[in-house]
Amino acid sequence: MTVDGPGMRAEQFGEGFRIAGAYPVTQGKFHNRPCPLDARRLCGDDHITSGSSDSPRVRTRGQPANRLGKVIRREQVLVSARLFGGMGPSVGEGKQVTRHTFRRGSLATIIGVALSVSAVPLVAPAHAETATEITVPATMGTTPRTAYLQSAGASGFLEYRSTAEGYGLWWTSYDGSRKPVEGGERLGPRTPGAYGTGSDVVALRTSQGSGGQVLLRNMGTGTTETVAIPADQSYLQTYGHTVLTGTSTGGERTRLFLLRNENGGTVQKPVTGLPDGTVFPFFPKGSASGLLVNYYGPDRVLQYAWVDTETGAATILPPLVANIDTVVGSDYLVSYSASRARVYAQGAYDAPSHEVAFPHNSGDKILGVVGDALVVARRSDSSVWSVSALPFDGSAELPLFKRADPATVVTSDGGLVLAGGESSLDYGIAKVEAGADGLPRARRIVDLPAVPMGIESFDLSGGELTTYESGDGATHLYSRSLATAGTLTAGTRTDRGATQRCGVMAGDYGSCPDLRGTGDGRAVSHDAAGEVSVLDRGQSLPGTVLATGLQDNHGLVDVEGRYAAWRGPSPAGDGLMVADLDTRKVVLTRTGAAGAGASALWGETLWKAAGDGGVTATEVRSGNPITSFRMVGRGCGPGDFQAVGRWVYWSGWCDLPQGSVQKALVYDTRRKTLIAVPTGGEKRLGDGFLVTRDSGSGALTLTDVTSGSAVNRTLAAKAGKWDVDPYTGLVGYVDPASQDIHVLRSGIPATDIAVLGARTEPSVGLVDSSSSWDGTWWLSRPAASWTLVLRNRATGATVRTLSGGAAQDAVHASWNGRTSTGAYVPNGTYSWTLTVAPADRHAASATASGSLKLTGGAAVRRDQIGSDGIGDLVTLTPSGAVAFHPGDGAGKFSTKTSASGWPTSITVVPFGDLNGDRCNDVLVRLGSGALRAYRPGCGKALTTSTPYTTLGTSGWNQYNVLTSPGDITGDGRGDLIARQASTGDIYLYKATSSGKLSARVKIFSKWSGYKKIIGVGDLNGDGYGDLLAQDTSNTLWRYAGTATGGFRARVKVADKWGATYNVVVGAADITGDGRADIVSRDTSGKLWRNNGDGKGSFGPRTEIAAGWQGYKALY
Question: Domain 3-139+454-745, CATH 3.90.1690 — does that match?
Answer without folding.
Answer: no
